[in-house]
Structures are given as structure tokens and as C-alpha cells.
Amino acid sequence: MSKNLQLNEVQEILSSDKKLAVFIIENLRSSLSSIGFSENFLDDLLSDLGNLNVKDFGEKWKEELKQKYSIGFFQNLVPKYFLEYVVPVTPSSDEIIDVGCGTGILAKLYAQDDRFKKVTGIDINSYPEWEIFRNEKIRFEIVKENNFAGFLKIEKPDSIVLTWTLHHMEHDEQERYLGYIYENLKIGAKIVVLEDSYSTNLAPENGANKYEKFMEWNPDQRKNIMSVFDWVANRVLAQREKVPIPCAYRTLEEWSTILEKKGFKTVVQKFIGFPNDRDINSPQSLIVAEKN
User: Fold this and answer.
1) Residue 57 and residue 44 in contact, taking contact as beta carbons nearer than 8 Å
2) Is the pTM above the cut of 0.90?
3) What CATH number is given for 1-292 in this structure?
């Protein structure tokens, strides 16, 4: 796939394998319905997804996207998800850096927790929510790759978290970022990674039936499923034109291997699976690793 998944590539995935297309469309209808989108919205989105005019669709359904996605999902459901799976496994920190923080909702949750003294959210793009969430405990900055290592060297954080960030990088870029992080963390500092990722060894903690059906497809088909889901979430639902979509997924076991290759020791490994109240039915995995 290209560095950024394009509409014509989505169309190719959907048109080249009719059974796979049915699976993708049915899953999108199920997940989006579960977070409150109307039948009219879903019919308009899914009747001919491969030929969707994303900009026109966004304008037509602007209010429903705002209420059900920007507010209903990101402001209400995502915080609950982070509070259940991410915040509890994050060690207390004098400073924690949220890499690829997006809107900053996770940074906001950390700032509300007394275990975290200083919270810094960074991304390659800015988000309007930064102005709302910023306070004496939280700051947000745009940090590109060429400044990332230097930024970490100055900050010297106790913990780093990356949620749904690494699959927006090419594989070699993922390795570079993890290398920068390892080189600039203190001994004993931890990294928390939440990714769209499935396990080949562990049973899912949620959605065993969904996992069983997902694993009936071969690895290339699984990647195509997750890629279309990611394209819908970012380009259509969030209307984000600048977010890279290289579809660079890895299994949970592959993430553990690459972290250990960089020098980390895995201390927590969770295959969350397919929890309810999600915008897209992509499998979820979480890893906590420590710098030795």
C-alpha cells in the first residue's frame, strides 16, 4: 500500500474480494450503530463506500458526526476506554509524555490523576482541543521527527505513552521512534503502547466471537480489514486529512519483539481484543515495557 491509503485503494480492497467486502461493511454497520449513528447515516456511508465523496459526506452529516463521533465517541467513550485499560497500567510519573496525543484527551485524564505531576502532549499536527485542555499541569507542542530525540533529551520523562500512534508511521519510522525513546529514557522508565493489533498466541479479553471470525481471514486480508477501518475512522468520521495512514500494523508478538530488540523488557502484555462501544472493530493490544 502507499504511504497514505487512498480512496482508490479502499475501492480496490472492496471490489477485489466480495466476501471480504461484506465482512467489512457488516462490521462497520455494527460498530457505528453501537455508538449511536443513525440508519440513514449508515446507509449513506456504506451503500457505496468505495466511491464515497469524503468532503461532501462530511458536510452533509456534519452535525451527526459532531454529536456522535467528536462528542459521543471521543469525549465520552474514549476516556472510559483509556481509564479502564491505559491509565491503570501507567506508572506514577513526575513527567509523562503522550506521543501522538491527538486531541489530548488522554493527557487530560493523566492531569486529573494525582499520580502524574506534569503531562506533555506532542503531535506532528495541532488540534483545537489543545486550547481547551491546556492548564498549569498540561502543555501541548508540535514536535516533528527531526526534533523528537532532542525534545526527549531535554525533557527526560519518567514515562512515555503511545496510543494508536505507531500504526500511523511506516515500519522503519516506528523503529526509529522506538530507538529515540529508548536512547533518551532514564533506566527504569517505562513505555506504554496501545495499538490496533491482534495476538497469535493470547486469547482476547473481549469479543472472542469477533476474534474467531476475524482470524478466519489470512494475514493480508486482516491487514486490509484494519486498513479500511482506519481509513473510515480518520478520513471520514474524524475528517482528518493530514493524519498519515500507511497501515503499518504488527501483531502483539511482533511489537514485543521489536521493543525487546531496542533494549526494552516487556513487563505487561495484554490482548484486549474487541471491546464494546468502539467506532471500528479493529483488535486492540497493550504493552508496557521498561528500559533496563
Assistant:
1) yes
2) yes
3) 3.40.50.150
